[in-house]
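Why show two proteins at once? Because comparison is the fastest way to build intuition. When a single record is shown, students tend to memorize it. When two are placed side by side, the eye starts asking what differs. So, the first record is below.
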Amino acid sequence: MFTKTLTAGVLAVSLALTSLSPTQAQASFSEEDAVVGILTLLLLGAAIHNSRDNGNDRPRVDPNAWKVLPDQCLRQTTRRNGNSIRFFGQRCMNNNYAYVSRLPQACHVRFRNENGQRRQGWRARCLRNEGFRFNRH
């Protein structure tokens, strides 16, 4: 980045000096020539500054976007033993989340609900402790 700035500065100075054409062969510049040269440098500097692409107008992509889980998959149910559990259902996650294979297996759970149905998914608290967030609207 410094190299671009230095190159732009050298270019600006050389353009400013070559754009001055003396009417007579003189050994020094007049005040008018100095003012024109400075104004030329300022205009070139402003043009270079405005043409730079800072990246501010581009949308930023969150590198941890894959750690945001779909809230529609968050379930709460009661286990057969009477304890309640909050989890992300496996079928819903397979349909609504592209990174199921990246979920920690330590958070995966299989259990039977109070009606005896088999359920499986990932424990919500465990995923939160692993750095995952819920996509709440």
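Second record. Ask yourself what differs from the first in the token line.
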Amino acid sequence: MDSLIPFTTSGALMDCVDRKMLVILRDGRKLHGVLRSYDQFANLVLEDTVERIYHGNAFAESWYGLYLIRGENVVLIGEIDLDQEDDVPLKQVDYNVLEPYHKEDVEDKKHREEAKSQVLFEEKGFSKEGGEGDGY
């Protein structure tokens, strides 16, 4: 009976080792790489890691190589389907071309979130405590 209960801890990552993964961090960065190792705190080691940024129908990648991620910064981790990865209808461009647009998008999102937080604080009494990235 116990074998039917799914893993809800870092043990669920057992089948993901040596597979290409997408990891989304608390600060919004999206990392793609091969999961090589993890521990009980969900600290991850990714190999051949790239950070991917998006704007409109384009994306760009920045190479990081071997990358260690502290588990508390992971929001989402999922396996990438290699068969469907090539079918994504986005155009790859140079990172330096897309970076200014991406930074502008991040700033716009930050201002929108601050405005929402202010409204929730003033009209609904929600707390404004917490620092950057504590929304998860």
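One difference worth noting in the second protein: The mean pLDDT is 87.
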